[in-house]
Design goal:
Length: about 750
């Protein structure tokens, strides 16, 4: 319609002899107007448009796949096997993972090293069609940095319709991903139909109710509503075929030996206790794990037979993460087995378990992928390691000559919050912004060339405890998938975040027009509050240099001329950005001044880089950390370290009280400190302890410890002792606990 009317007007103007200046033909188009994600390695533009007004595609395959989209573009695209003007060819002289897209005056050509690479060139064309009413003449040469470019989806905690899974695969396709890691079994639900074991479908696929709110909310409440279902083998075949047609390989995950409570609820003989248990109704890590007995192995081999039949991928992900060993320790069967087989501890028993399955999978001509815990107790020769607890697992794996996939929580967990704005929908925790994802460097330091080559690729993970429906999945995943696609295609030195944002906003419009839920936090103001000798001030990161920023506070509203604002009175302050007529969300803080605001603060141990808050000042800036969630600017998280904070005043000051906030989130391995010691000094060299707290407890998610004092000092030192290694039977057993500290209020 739009095209016809413009054509009509041009004809009319021509007829009545009016010059149309500038005519569309003379408009120069520059590379910043080409909004491809991921950005191509090289893009050269001739500056003008091709004369193509209709794309005649001779590839029935691509036509069938993308017909519903192609038919909606402003440039007509049609199937024409006789007089095509779009040529697509495999050219094996190109580098692996490389494609070329050339748009000439009247022809389009796409070359790829393989068919999969042609797909990527075709997607670039689709993205251009999304944006342009006339195609710019250009030449693109592009090559993926990594072969393995994956997205994961957990359907155990919440599951999604087949049509939603297809849409997820569409997202993958559109950003040139080539692997879909489908996490099919969990404590809270077994989702793959295995007809030989009908109780999986009757029992393991359903939980009687689901936790309401966050795991850290106490007491736990449940919705008293049965939840579940499973994907039939027919549906799974449909998904595999759908993905395959789009150049996406589906890698199924069958979790073992941990995260197996749903299967054990259906068949208690696969556990070590034989107890009848329920499918899990809340989140976390559970003690009921598969027992390495013959019944379990027979069962898992049948499952693998079906999986081999359903999924053409050469890989099967066998999980391997978060397997508590308590039941194995207590099991006579396991202890006997260990003696018989000369297995020295339960970690080796886990390796033995994985080994039996990996051998079986290898006998079917396939290999395993496992989470990085599969390194503990020895790696199976065929294993590929998925490094999620940071990158150390990947480093260890490649040093042993194994392939590794990078998916560290710090950059690749899209279940984390993506903005610290308080209106964000409930998420598991953490904060992994679009920018954090964008800056990920998948190659760990200190690897030699051979080891670097074993870094097979990068994957984003979507765990769905807090994603009840597919809108929430796309809200959490899609924007960060775009950023991660650029990580998969371009080295850090080739990336440009501002350039990415310029393209990203166009893609947001594209998806929103299709009714897809997508996050856009570009107008969210990142407000941090710093302490200084002059008192606390708010510092804002402007989303864009032309943004207007306003402060709203008890006394009125003002436009800010620079990006800092002193907080002179106690009370609530809000800030928001305005750009191009659009107003961003308000960011609010509640300031309550205290002696610490103008003091200096030093930390003996640094917080983890991922949970460094807005820096050490956050501990004394007058802004209490929120009980709602850890992460964000006000919480500092220490991994396996004590808090040792020294606060120095300009001159000796009277102190009557110290109040300290600690977060408790055992599901995320965040534990309260064991004790707190307060010591003081006049010279900053010799400290004397003046009081201690030997027990820190709370019923809720936050302990606010108030310590009365009667002292005068120039320096105060606060030592909060870490919990240390988490005991067996508790969340995160065997790992170092985190210590999260909020505000330290000095009065
Ligand atoms: C994991 O996030 N437990 C692999």
């Amino acid at each position: 319609m739009h095209k016809i009317s413009r054509f009509f007007i041009l004809v009319l103007l021509g007829l009545i002899g009016i010059q149309c200046a500038p005519s569309v033909e003379n408009v120069v188009i520059s590379d910043t107007q080409v909004k491809l994600i991921p950005a191509p390695d090289s893009l050269s533009m001739s500056g003008s448009f091709s004369t193509i007004s209709e794309i005649r595609l001779d590839d029935v395959h691509f036509w069938n796949l993308h017909k519903s989209w192609l038919e909606t573009y402003p440039i007509a695209v049609k199937l024409d096997t006789i007089s095509s003007n779009l040529k697509m060819e495999v050219d094996s002289s190109l580098l692996p993972l490389q494609y070329i897209l050339n748009i000439g005056a009247d022809r389009i050509s796409i070359y790829g090293h393989t068919f999969a690479d042609i797909r990527n060139g075709f997607i670039s064309l689709l993205q251009l069609l999304q944006k342009h009413e006339r195609l710019p003449m250009l030449h693109i040469e592009d090559r993926a940095e990594f072969d393995y470019r994956g997205m994961h989806l957990d359907v155990g905690r919440h599951m999604f319709d087949i049509e939603d899974i297809k849409q997820y695969i569409d997202f993958l396709t559109y950003y040139k991903y080539n692997r879909f890691h489908w996490h099919l079994t969990e404590d809270q639900g077994w989702r793959i139909e295995i007809p030989s074991y009908p109780k999986l479908q009757e029992i393991a696929a359903f939980r009687k109710e689901t936790l309401v709110g966050h795991y850290n909310d106490q007491p736990h409440e449940f919705d008293q509503t049965k939840y579940g279902g499973f994907y039939t083998q027919l549906e799974i075949r449909e998904i595999v075929a759908y993905a395959d047609a789009r150049g996406v390989e589906v890698i199924p995950e069958i979790e073992m030996p941990g995260h197996a409570q749903a299967a054990i609820a259906a068949y208690p003989e696969f556990g070590c206790t034989g107890d009848q248990i329920d499918v899990a109704t809340k989140w976390g890590v559970f003690p009921d794990v598969f027992c390495p007995n013959p019944e379990t192995f027979n069962f898992l081999k049948v499952v693998i037979d079906d999986v081999v039949d359903l999924f053409p991928s050469s890989y099967i992900h066998i999980g391997g993460d978060e397997c508590p060993k308590d039941q194995w320790k207590a099991s006579e069967f396991c202890q006997d087995l260990m003696r018989r087989e000369g297995i020295k501890d339960e970690y080796e028993l886990q390796s033995y378990f994985i080994g039996v399955i990996a051998d079986y999978i290898q006998s079917k001509g396939k290999s395993i992928i496992g989470w990085d815990e599969i390194l503990e107790g020895g790696l199976h020769p065929s294993a590929t390691v998925m490094s999620w607890r940071g990158t150390v697992g990947a480093v260890a794996a490649v040093k042993e000559g194994h392939k590794a996939i990078m998916t560290p929580g710090s950059h690749c967990y899209f279940d984390h919050y993506q903005s610290s704005h308080p209106d964000e929908p409930l998420a598991i925790g953490g904060l992994t912004t679009l920018e954090d994802v964008y800056h990920f460097d998948p190659i760990p330091k200190g690897l030699n060339l051979e080891q670097r080559k074993l870094i097979w690729g990068v994957q984003g993970n979507v765990w769905t405890e807090y994603m009840k429906d597919f809108d929430q999945v796309s809200y959490m995943a899609l924007a960060r998938m775009m950023a991660l696609s650029e990580v998969q295609w371009n080295l850090p030195s080739e990336r440009d975040y501002d350039g990415f944002l310029n393209r990203y906003v166009d893609h947001v419009d594209f998806w929103e027009a299709k009714g897809v839920s997508i996050a856009n936090h570009l107008l969210d103001l990142d407000v941090v509050v710093r302490s200084s000798p002059l008192g606390s001030y708010a510092l804002m990161r402007m989303p864009n240099e032309n943004t207007e920023v306003y402060a709203v506070y008890p006394a009125g509203k003002s436009s800010l001329k620079n990006d800092s604002f002193y907080l002179e009175k106690d009370g609530a302050y809000s800030f928001f950005a305005e750009y191009d007529g659009q107003e961003g969300r308000q960011s609010s803080i509640d300031f309550k001044g205290h002696l610490g605001n103008k003091a200096s603060i030093d930390l003996e141990n640094l917080p983890s880089k991922t949970y460094a808050g807005s820096g050490k000042d956050a501990l004394v800036n007058g802004i209490a950390a929120s009980e709602k969630k850890y992460g964000g600017p006000e919480w500092l998280g220490f991994s396996g370290k004590d808090l040792i904070a020294t606060i120095g005043f300009e001159e000796s000051s009277e102190l009557s009280n110290i109040t300290i906030q600690f977060f408790k989130g055992e599901g995320q391995w965040i534990y309260l400190p064991r004790s707190i010691d307060i010591s003081v000094s006049e010279d900053g060299l010799t400290y004397s302890s003046i009081t201690a707290v030997n027990k820190v407890e709370t019923e809720g998610k936050m302990a606010t410890v108030s310590i009365p004092l009667e002292t005068e000092a120039k320096f105060v030192r606060i030592t909060a002792r870490k919990h240390g290694i988490i005991e067996q039977g508790r969340q995160g057993a065997g790992h170092q606990a985190w210590l999260f500290v909020g505000e330290i209020i000095l009065e």
